[in-house]
Each structure stands twice: as structure tokens, then as C-alpha cells.
């Protein structure tokens, strides 16, 4: 059975650290603590007084002053790791944590997971080939020496960089190493840790190199583990669930995230908000619990992206440079059917084709496999279709040799609606207002990755009102845009009323409009 030695780097909140150590060691696991020497001495004494008599807790023999982006974070980790290896010979795994982390699975589940997966869990991506670094320095982190802290000694940090750059004082990366990068939150097997500590003792040149790189906690362990361990024994992922906003800030978890966290395919989560006392209490009880069954649906990141995106109403829209002064043509009519239930819109489109013979194309901006003619490659991907939207539409008008054409769009495509409505051509928009049952919303959530087969009922019940409100919000945005030729038909409306609106939208006779509106299967799920 796996036994874990937790490597805890911390610098504040002594009571939380004490509780965390007591929770994790009660289940028979161990903990090695490095408490930043910059922190208040009385806080360190408080922790020592509370935990010194716990045989499953050890403290790093050497405490260092830690700074973001510095070698000191690696040094502190090595110190705590060395103490743990010496003090806990029965530990089979070493798991890196911070004071903001908490277990989101029981000890029983965690031990079984590690027993079933004989591997090292560490993000380890090629430093130069991967896109792990989104913006900022890349090669500069390694080939120049960084002795100052970028946050606390900014002027010295950049002065030293500029001097080296001006004088060409670059250095070589150790020839036998492939530099890797990834999250600093890892879980390594005992054999791997012993190999790593032995390598550090023998290869002082490697230590010297990383000592003056920038943000080495994202490269040091990631590189050495990949260097020492066969690739088939490495799982290139972290077991700690963490998310970042678009601005690079970590996402905090609060009391109402309990079920969400339990359903993720991770063992720990970071960061738990200091104010989330009930969440901490429930997660604390969970680690010692037995017989708990976990439904893993892993929808956390998709949910966060969806929910955070709802607030971004003011997305910028501007004409692309290749579309400047372009138009579909004053004499042309573009008829747009807008509906959240795509199958309903497709039925309406199919019925319109049968009655009017007007060329009609389904969700060409939403579905990659929409049937389109060969237009020289512009139609190949959704990205190209969006980028060259007007050019694509002009080519479709030309291909079908028509001045009238119908397309389907999702209500979320407000930027496309704005673009085409502002064109010199005649644009009419038919919005189909449907009713949404809970079953439909659940199916929608699964189709777009917000939920899975194992998503709990509690999570779905909290999610459904948000999705329903989001659909209402999309419709409201269309109405708020006040498009000149915006017409609506409703699932709940009388067919005669829908026929009147179809007549206006398609500019056809009442009889033909009535023939379309009275199709009995039009709105069926």
C-alpha cells in the first residue's frame, strides 16, 4: 500500500498548516515542512510547538528565504525532500504541496490510485517546442544568468540582463540535458527521488546552471526526472487541480465548489480560498473517510471557461483588413436563421428548400463538417470561414448563381450577425425561439463539454439554471442589437402567427409560408 510523504512549502497561516499536517498524517501518511525563513519567527515556533510531537511530521533541516522566480524555491524543496527521505524510509511517494492545497479525494482513494499507477506524475514538456510559456521570455530564462529577484529588485534584474545581452555574455545549456518545463506540483516515486538527490550531489555543474536560471522551479525537477526516468514511467500531468484566468492569476475555490472539486480527476486542488471555511471543513473530513465513491466527470476547466466567458459582453469587433470596403453586393439578400436547437433550424431550412428552392446552408460557422462546395480551400476550417466570412459568403452566392441565400447561425454568433447586418446587402434575421427542457439542457451541457456521463445530479441542478439564463442572455443580446430586419417565430406560438412572420422573412406567399409553419414535426425533440 502506498504511503505518501508530503513536501509542504509554506510561509503563512500557521493554524491552517497545523490542521493540514494533522489531517494528512492521521491517515498514516507523512509530512516534511519547509517554512519560509522570511516569515514571522513566532509563526514558525507556533507550528513547531504544535507538531514536534507528531512522529509523522519532520521539518526541513535548512530553512531558506524564498522568493518567486528564484533558485531558493528549488533549494527549499530539496531541503524538505532530503529530510523526508531520511526520516521516512517507508514512504513510497513524495507529493509536492503548498499551504493553499487541500485533498479532494479520500486517503483510501489516493493510496489505491498510486498503487494502481506505478509512475511519476509530473508535467514535463519540451522547453523549446511546447507552448507552455505563452508570453514573455523563453530562451532568455536559460542562456543569461539571473542573480536578482525580478519582483523585489526589478532595476538590478533588468540591468544585469541588458548588460549580458549587450556584451553577448550568453552561456550553454548542459549538453546532456533536454530542458523540460511544467507545473511545480508533482508526485514522484521513492526510487525517482533517490536517483534525483544522488544526481544533485554528483552533478554540481547542473545545479550551478539552474541556480542562476529564472523561475527554475518550473524546469529543474521537470528536466531531471525526464533525464533519469524512462519516458514510459512518466505521466506528463499533475495530480493537483489548478486553473488560471486569462490574466494568469490562479483561480480560487470557494464553499460552493465542493462537488465540482470531488468530480475532477485529481487528488488535490489549489488554491482553496482562506474564506472558504466550510469547504475546508468538508474536505478535511473527506480525507479520513472510508468507502467514498467518486464520480469522475472532469468538467471543471470547461465549466470555468464557460461561466467566466458569460460576463464578456463587450467583445471587440472590427472589420478585418482584407474585408475593408468589401460587400456581399447591394442587390443580394442574405437570410439568416438563428436557433439554439440546431436540429430545429435544420428542419426549418429543409422545409424552406422544399417549398422555395432557395439555396440554404446549415451551420457553416459552427460545424466543421457542414457540406460546402470546393471554394479553393477557404471553406476547409472554421477558423478560415470566420476569418474570411464575407469573402466566403460572396463566393457561395457566386457558386449557386443566386442573389438570395439562407444560412443558419447559433445565437452566440453575435459578432457574425453584427457584421452581416452592417453590410450593404439586404440582411434579414429569423430567430426561432424554442422551449428548453431540463433533458435538452443536460444534453447540451454534455455536447459542449460542460458535463459528462459521471457528472453528479447536484452539479447538474446548479448548472442548469445558469445554462438556461445564458440562452436567454444570447437572445437578449440579439434584441438589444436592434437589427433592422429581425423577425421571430416561436415554438409555442400559433402556426398562423408563425406563418405571417415566415412570409415577411422569406418574402413569399401566405400559402407557402403556411405550408412551412404547419409542418407537424418542425419543433419536435
What does this structure look like?
The protein has 525 residues and is α/β, with parallel strands linked by helices. The protein is built from 20 helices and 17 strands. 42% of the residues lie in helices and 13% in strands. It has a five-stranded mixed β-sheet, sandwiched between helices. The protein has a five-stranded parallel β-sheet with strand order 14-15-13-16-17, with helices on both faces.
Please give a quick description of this structure.
It contains 20 helices and 17 strands. It is α/β, with parallel strands linked by helices and 525 residues long.
The best one-word shape is: elongated
Low-confidence sequence ranges: 312-325
Q: Count the beta strands.
A: 17
Mean pLDDT: 89
**Structural class assignment:** alpha/beta
Number of helices: 20
Relative strand content = 5-15%
Report the sheet with the most strands, covering strand number, pairing sense and barrel closure: 5 strands, mixed
- What is the CA-based Rg, rounded? 30 Å
Q: Alpha-carbon distance between the termini?
A: 51 Å
- Strand line-up across the major sheet: 3-2-1-4-9
Helix content: 40-55%
